[in-house]
Specification:
The complex is a heterodimer of chains A (498) and B (770). Chain A has 498 residues and is of the alpha+beta class. Chain A folds into three domains: 8-188, Beta-grasp domain (Ubiquitin-like (UB roll), Roll), CATH 3.10.20.30; 194-248, 2-Layer Sandwich (Uridine Diphospho-n-acetylenolpyruvylglucosamine Reductase, domain 2), CATH 3.30.43; 258-496, Enolase-like, domain 1 (2-Layer Sandwich). Chain A contains 18 helices and 21 strands. In chain A, 56% of the residues are buried. By secondary structure, chain B is α+β, with helices and mostly antiparallel strands. Helices cover 29% and strands 24% of the residues of chain B. In chain B, strand 10, helix 6 and strand 11 (228-232) form a beta-alpha-beta unit. In chain B, helix 10 packs parallel to helix 18 (730-741). Classes of the chains: A alpha+beta (498), B alpha+beta (770). At the A-B interface, helix 2, helix 3, helix 4, helix 5 and helix 18 of A face helix 1, strand 25, helix 17 and helix 19 of B. The complex binds flavin-adenine dinucleotide and FE2/S2 (inorganic) cluster (2 copies).
Chain lengths: 498, 770
């Protein structure tokens, strides 16, 4: 396998080569401090405000596909082989504003202007994507862009107006008009080489194959694996940890693949949340909605399912959902792989069943079988881009009105994502048609968990809500439309059960 | 003939002109402090604090590891302060660096000055500070128990409240908690200090109050005010959080520059910013109301207990304004309004858009809801029953309300929002819905405009006309996104009769206009617009003298319109006239000054006039709540707001919508959580949740009330708009109360603010337990 010792990315039509950079350098610091490009702002340095949003382009099936990312927690090394677009790049060389920019000016979408570069970049990415743009597409696109001044109404209007005026060849968008040229340049950057910048004691590495990854990680079991860096980025920017050795998973061929199999879906560890969003919706709309509410577009475009599991967090959103679906985890070390039920991976707070040098390879998620129904609820102070106070997922196997089996998993209720074994047992034999038969399970679920109080919610609220969500799931599965049970995230009405 | 003559219509003012910086905002070319090209050798400063304690005597500070860190140039502590260790905007008590004692968790004890920001931040974490820690008084209850206040109690009495409450046919009591609020300006606190000769400093500072930065830096350094220039082109948001609390960071940057002789920049990390700077005051409000049994209020007795934090800062004005707005739009025949300003061992709370007024009104509207719910009356009817009479009334602080338009305004919104039909539909929905409940509320606001500290009601402006006819304007107001620079430029363009592109907007600097007030109290365009107009008038009069003989009219008949000076149907282009004035040795530069007339508030005696006028508005909000989880969705908002004759309708609508959403966040998702050690647990956007785009309903309309203009003589009869709209969001809080009240008619929900899912569930649970 060939090795390359400098980073390459495409910017303004030119390939930039960076051969010296610290492994922890963020893209934002690279832009602002090293390149003097001050248009991209820092509002929080932790992925939550979107002021630092830039757009990355990569080749997907021969076309350039654009996604917004938070430059503050993106490591510079992660952008190898991609096109970088920043706020300075949108207007044409004669100064003509991009349609998104002019809509923002004309419709009064900026006040203090500090959020604006990030908002424009998010909307630019939306403008690049094909497909109809309605209000919910816009608000979802902006979930990770905070604006404290405008109240968003004019920004949403600007987005709708710019996207409504968009035609196929996107007039006034010089990025789109150069996309064929860009595709050629990006293709030229695909050298399949392992990237290794630095020394044996301090490096940024991005192996190109699973074999190279396995070998490198075996040699440096003390290295930090980075997939999307939506967690690791904050170790650097907020905890100020020193991470001299970083192995990035984003270039490993095959590690981000998603396979549909006969009974389900196999998700490569480096697949991002965005990569699998549609697959998740296909399994169940609630799963799709949980996905949509993980972080923001920026976070989902970088963050991975593998990272969400590997980090062992008790408040990650995907583990409870995947545990309820009876997912299986595959780990790899060197050439050896092993499988385990996902829930078995989480041993205790901060402790997972993963050996030094071992990495998450993939997750297999079984589809729902006939007679199985699924519900999931994410409870947080704010709907979009918030960490769950309580995350819950339910899979019931039915026989007529009777519950034959239940798998229930919660996040935020214990030191790990955890099943509600007591409630699961108590539900077996209960009838959807007889609310009285639910009582034992509703009582049992309170005994299943002893949650903590923190800044997101009190223990009492968590316990009450766990029981309330079980009851809600049962009410819905028994036939009540989600329009009568939820304030948001309704399931499609066409569904047979509704 | 007359067709040739320009009309007297407004050509620039009163038009919806986009923000002057809009094109720069969208291209990333608008410069904020951290974007200014750094002079060679610029150092970076990071603050450090005692991690272990909120309160206690400092027993040792070990900074060896900090000093030894690579790239460290200096470490500053209280000992490095040249003159005075205090950056208070008011009565003192705000040390720049803790000296001997830690007063709250996150208080700055030292600052690291380094070659890079990264080195400064990393080194700052290596300090070992030992504190003989005592248990901090974190909340209002602890402060009451300890009986500590930052300022004396204050009281308004109208009539005979005690006897009136006793003798009223009916009485209702209640208590309510109102949370604080983090400003979350998107641009954190930042300052860059650049040394000049003679020890002078130029300070680029993200502040609403450059004059205060100048004066306090001079005081701390022991220099005359003339040694310091404070400048601000724009802030990435302020909202009150950079009124007094931008100063400390500028001061520390200044000390660093002074000690090292090199430029020094301090930009706070977001988490530090949230821990180290003050917020909106949180309150407990205890109240009693006596009424006639049909909801006509006879007397109100209310006690406001606010958490001020460790020092006075701006708490006097903030809490006074709470009291000034405890009546909102309602006439209380008898009232006792009592305020305690409690000292807690937490960060010093400060100005925040509305400056205490919102908390006063949240109480008022809760009282109205509670009365209506207990009496089974529609809350809107109860509100209307108690409005100030359209001919006026007397406030609890003795001011006669002479510009009341709340009746017309609320009637208009009641009709346009279809309030009655929606109320009926909601009642029907709630009767049959098991899990979800709806609520609706239409609430008014009446907000007093002027600084209640009378001397702040003054402003200055400086206008230059250059010989090519281009115009430069400068004034004491600062730009934080609210469009003040644009509005003042519109006034200048209007007065000179030129197009806006001829007017150059420039950064606020203490070197051009001295001794200014903070840009606050919504008064920015009222004050600076008038000052600029006064400056223009002086120059224009002199230009008219030059034009008059050429045009063959008297100077008073020269009209400045459409880029020219007119006399009859003759005209001279403005640029030519400027050139002629220059050649004729006529002075083309002048200052303008304005002091709001008639402001006479005498605080000790509680007499006089604190406000020039009131701004009015109303909002109707509808919500949907989930009684299983407490989740909330605001589903519709209709706003009608009074800005007099708007200087710029687009900008004003932006202020209204933005203020509303900010207020909605305060009352719903934004929760400040302190632990019992006095540490703020929600010090980042990951845990402190301001509204996102999807929290704003699709059905969201804002109309400007068609009034005959401000009855007071303000700039073009406009009204202030910065703060009042925040309080329109109380309609959301009342609508949530309404939704919960549907669970047990007749019972008042025990809902505190913010109405997080958990707070809503607490209230729902209490209702279900009745
Ligand atoms: C603003 C913001 C919002 C967020 N919102 C949510 C949310 O709503 N819900 C939620 O669940 N999470 C949320 N997160 C957390 C985060 O996005 C997830 O945990 C994400 O899945 C992490 O994936 P990553 O690829 O970015 O991981 P990284 O940061 O790259 O890595 C995380 C950890 O996993 C390890 N790791 C990564 N891949 C592997 C692998 N293949 N094998 C072994 N170890 C590996 C890393 O070494 C590290 O310890 C949010 C984060 C941010 C910044
Ligand atoms: S700076 Fe806030 S998301 Fe990056
Ligand atoms: S315009 Fe100020 S934060 Fe968006």
């Amino acid at each position: 396998m060939t090795m390359r010792s400098s980073l390459r990315y495409l910017h303004r039509g030119e390939i930039r080569d960076v051969s010296h950079f610290g492994p922890m350098t963020t893209l934002l610091d690279h832009l602002r401090l090293e390149r003097g490009l001050k248009g991209t702002k820092e509002g929080c340095n932790e992925g939550d405000c979107g002021a630092c949003t830039v757009v990355l382009g990569r080749l997907v099936d021969g076309h350039v596909s654009y996604r917004p990312v938070n430059a503050c927690i993106q490591l510079l090394g992660q952008i190898d082989g991609e096109e970088l677009i920043t706020i300075e790049d949108l207007a044409a060389s004669d100064g003509t504003l991009h349609p998104v920019q002019s809509a923002m000016v004309d419709l009064h979408g900026s006040q203090c202007g500090y959020c604006t570069p990030g908002i424009v970049m998010s909307l630019f990415a939306l403008y690049q994507a094909d497909g109809p743009v309605g209000r919910s597409e816009v608000t979802d696109q902006l979930a990770g862009n905070l604006c404290r001044c405008t109240g968003y109404r004019p920004i949403v209007d600007a987005a709708l107006s710019a996207c409504a005026a968009r035609t196929e060849n996107k007039p006034g968008d010089h990025v789109a008009s150069k996309s064929a040229e860009t595709a050629v340049k990006l293709a030229s950057l695909r050298d399949g080489a392992d990237l290794f910048v630095g020394s044996q004691t301090s490096f940024f590495a991005a192996p190109a194959s699973i074999e190279s990854l396995a070998t490198l990680y075996h040699q440096h079991p003390d290295a930090i694996l980075v997939a999307g860096a939506t967690d690791v980025g904050l170790w650097i920017t907020k905890q100020l940890r020193q991470l001299p050795k970083i192995i990035h998973l984003g270039r490993v061929v095959g590690l981000a693949e998603v396979h549909e199999t006969a009974d389900g879906l196999t998700i490569g560890a480096a697949a991002t949340f965005s990569d699998v969003e549609a697959h998740m919706t296909a399994i169940d709309p609630d799963l799709g909605e949980v996905w949509r509410r993980i972080g923001s577009k920026q976070v989902r475009a970088s963050g991975t399912v593998g990272g969400n599991i590997a980090n062992g967090s008790p408040i990650g959103d995907s583990p409870p959902a995947l545990i309820a679906l009876d997912a299986t985890l595959t780990l790899q070390k060197g050439d050896d792989t092993r499988k385990m039920p996902l829930e078995a991976y989480f041993i205790a707070y901060g402790k997972q069943d993963r050996k030094p040098g071992e990495f998450v390879r993939s997750i297999h998620v079984p589809r729902l079988k006939p007679h199985q129904v699924f519900r999931a609820y994410k409870i947080s102070k704010r709907f979009d881009q918030d960490i769950s106070a309580v995350m819950s997922a339910f899979r019931l196997t039915l026989e007529g009105d009777f519950i034959r089996e239940a798998r229930i998993a919660f996040g935020g209720m214990a030191a790990t994502p955890k099943r509600a074994h007591g409630a699961e047992k108590a539900l077996v034999g209960a009838s959807l048609a007889d609310e009285a038969s639910w009582a034992a399970a509703l009582a049992a679920i309170r005994a299943d968990f002893t949650p903590l109080s923190d800044m997101r919610a009190s223990a009492t609220y968590r316990s009450d809500t766990a029981a309330a969500l079980l009851e809600k799931a049962l009410i819905e599965i028994a036939g009540t439309s989600t329009h009568a049970t939820r304030v948001t995230g309704h399931r499609p009405v066409s569904e047979a059960a509704e | 003939m007359s067709a040739l003559l320009p009309s007297n219509d407004f050509r620039v003012a009163r038009h919806s002109i986009p923000h002057d910086s809009g094109p720069k905002h969208v291209q990333g070319t608008a410069t904020y402090i951290d974007d200014i090209l750094e002079p060679a050798g610029t150092l970076h400063v990071a603050p450090g604090y005692a991690k272990s304690a909120a309160k206690g005597r400092i027993t040792s500070i070990n900074l060896e590891a900090v000093r030894a860190y690579p790239g460290i140039v200096a470490v500053l502590t209280a000992r490095d302060i040249p003159a005075v260790n205090d950056c208070s905007p008011s009565i003192g008590g705000d040390p720049v660096f803790a000296d001997g004692e830690v007063l709250f968790h996150g208080q700055v004890v030292f600052a690291v000055v380094a070659e890079t920001r990264d080195a400064a931040r990393r080194a700052a974490r290596l300090a070992v500070i030992e504190v003989d820690a005592t248990t901090p008084a974190v909340d209002v209850e602890a402060a009451i128990a300890r009986n500590t206040t930052v300022l004396p109690d204050y009281e308004f009495i109208k009539g005979e409240p005690a006897t009136a409450i006793q003798s009223a046919p009916a009485r209702l009591d209640g208590s309510l908690r109102i949370g604080g609020q983090e400003h979350f300006y998107l641009e954190g606190q930042a300052a860059l200090a650049i040394p000049g000769e003679d020890g002078d400093l130029l300070i680029h500072t993200s502040t609403q109050h450059p004059t205060e930065v100048q004066h306090i830096v001079a005081k701390v350094l022991g220099l005359p005010d003339t040694a310091i220039v404070a400048e601000c082109r724009r802030m990435g948001g302020g909202f009150g959080g950079k009124e007094s609390q931008a100063t400390q960071w500028a001061v520390i940057a200044a000390i660093a520059a002074r000690v090292t002789g090199r430029p020094a920049k301090l930009r706070l990390d977001r988490d530090d910013d949230m821990m180290m700077t003050g917020k909106r005051h949180d309150f407990r409000v205890d109240w009693s109301v006596g009424h006639d049994g049909a909801g006509h209020i006879e007397a109100v007795d209310v006690t406001f207990l606010s958490r001020c934090g460790y020092s006075a800062d701006l708490s006097l004005g903030v809490n006074d304004r709470t009291m000034f707005h405890a009546d909102n739009a309602y006439d209380y025949p008898n009232a006792r309004i009592y305020s305690r300003r409690l000292l807690t061992d937490t960060v010093s709370n400060t100005a925040f858009r509305g400056f205490g007024g919102p908390q006063g009104m949240v109480f008022t509207e809760r009282m109205m809801d509670a009365l209506a719910i207990t009496l089974g009356i529609d809350p809107l009817d109860l509100r209307k029953r108690n409005f100030y009479h359209s001919q006026g009334g007397t406030t609890p602080y003795g001011l006669h309300v002479s510009d009341n338009i709340i009746h017309e305004l609320v009637d208009d919104l009641e009709t346009s929002s279809d309030y009655r039909a929606r109320r009926a539909a909601i009642t029907a929905f709630n009767a049959s819905s098991r899990i979800l409940k709806k609520g609706i509320a239409l609430t008014p606001i009446k907000f007093g405009i002027s600084f209640t500290l009378p001397h702040l009601n003054q402003a200055g402006a400086l206008v230059h006309v250059y010989s090519d006819g281009s115009i430069m304007v400068n004034h004491g107001g600062t730009e934080m996104g609210q469009g003040l620079y644009l509005k003042v430029a519109q006034v200048v363009a209007e007065e000179f009769g030129v197009t806006l592109d001829r007017v150059k907007i420039t950064a606020t600097t203490t070197a051009k206009v001295p001794n200014t007030a903070p840009t606050a109290a919504s008064a920015g365009s009222d004050l600076n617009g008038m000052a600029a107009r006064n400056a223009v008038a002086k120059i224009r009069d002199r230009m008219a003298e030059v034009a008059a003989p050429i045009l063959g009219v008297a100077p008073v008949d020269v009209l400045f319109r459409d880029g020219a000076a007119w006399g009859g149907n003759q005209s001279i282009p403005f640029d030519e006239l400027a050139k002629k004035c220059y050649l004729a040795r006529v002075h083309l530069s002048d200052t303008g000054y304005y002091a709001t007339p008639g402001i006479t508030w005498d605080r000790p005696n509680k007499t006089g006039r604190p406000f020039l006028y009131f701004a009015y508005g109303a909002a109707c909000s509808e919500v949907l709540i989930d009684t299983f989880t407490g989740e909330l969705k605001v589903t519709q908002v209709d706003i009608l707001h009074d800005v007099g004759h708007s200087l710029n309708p687009a900008i004003d609508i932006g202020q209204i919508e933005g203020g509303f959403v900010q207020g909605m966040g305060w009352l719903t998702t934004e929760e400040l959580v302190f632990d019992d050690q006095g540490r703020l647990r929600t010090h980042a956007p990951s845990t402190y949740k301001i509204p996102t785009a999807s929290d704003v309903p699709a059905a969201f309309t804002t109309r400007l009330f068609e009034s005959g203009g401000n009855r007071s003589e303000t700039i073009y009869r406009s009204k202030a708009v910065g703060e009042p709209p925040v309080m329109l969001a109380i309609s959301v809080f009342s609508a949530i109360t309404d939704a919960i009240a549907s669970l047990k008619p007749g019972h008042v929900p025990l809902l505190d603010a913010p109405a997080t899912p958990e707070a809503i569930m607490r209230a729902v649970k209490a209702m279900k337990a009745i």
